[in-house]
Design brief:
3-stranded antiparallel β-sheet, 7 helices, elongated, alpha+beta, 6-stranded antiparallel β-sheet, 2 domains, Beta-Lactamase, Arc Repressor Mutant, subunit A, 234 residues
């Protein structure tokens, strides 16, 4: 079988398992997949060698292996912080009336992983999943500094870096796009690592000196609440 079809069949085999079917024999897998036993056996052995299946001591049945759990934990870890953050982001939006986003690093970009829109008709529009430059804007620069990412030394001045580390936030005024402003603060996990940036953004005319001070205080407080929920005690 070709490589793509082999992958499809391997995934279909894993999908045979459920709460009602935790242990499945080779014959039953063959019937469920409508494949010859020899083909199913080859797939099962490959998945077993990679840790995705375990064969019982009697060698009559298979069950899911530890690699499946490991992948599930990765998914749940990402899902968890987005879900934990959402109600706090909504409260922050309500207090500031500005859009609130959560950004994470993805390669040489930042991706919006959670978003709550401003109620104002005039607002910055960004969708969950949107990818933006890592070296422009407050969110990207904050992630570069707090995650100590290499290769961006020329994009951030010493003064910017010092300000972020001392004050705990980054700001951007019409840097990525004319008429837009933002400020970002770090989200920490239980290991003391910055995993995302919490960002307030909107039209630059609303980011006045007075509003900026309020926005910074509200954003820092919200980030502290989210980080605490994620197990950060710093």
């Amino acid at each position: 079988m070709d490589n793509v079809r082999a992958v499809e069949r391997a995934l279909e085999l894993l999908e045979c398992f459920s709460d009602d079917r935790k242990n499945i024999g080779l014959s039953e897998l063959s019937r469920m997949l409508l494949l010859p036993k020899a083909t199913v056996l080859r797939l099962a052995r490959t998945l077993e060698n990679k840790g995705y299946l375990i064969q019982d001591a009697d060698r009559q049945h298979y069950r899911l292996g530890p690699k499946v759990l490991a992948l599930g934990q990765v998914f749940l870890a990402e899902l968890e912080y987005r879900q934990v953050a959402l109600p706090f982001m909504e409260e922050l939006r309500n207090r500031t009336q500005e859009s609130v986003s959560l950004y994470a690093v993805s390669g040489d970009e930042r991706v919006c992983v959670q978003r709550v829109e401003s109620p104002h008709a005039l607002r910055q529009v960004i969708s969950i999943g949107a990818r933006l430059p890592l070296n422009r804007g407050s969110a990207g620069k904050l992630l570069i500094v707090f995650q100590n990412l290499a290769g961006y030394e020329e994009d951030i001045t010493w003064e910017e870096r010092k300000h972020m580390l001392e004050k705990g936030y980054a700001h951007s005024f019409e840097e990525r796009e004319q008429g837009l402003a933002s400020l970002s603060v770090p989200i920490w996990n239980n290991k003391g690592q910055v995993i995302a940036s919490l960002t307030l953004s909107g039209p630059s005319f609303r980011f006045t000196i007075a509003n900026n001070q309020k926005y910074v205080e509200e954003a820092l407080r919200t980030a502290k609440q989210i980080s605490y929920q994620l197990g950060y005690l710093g």
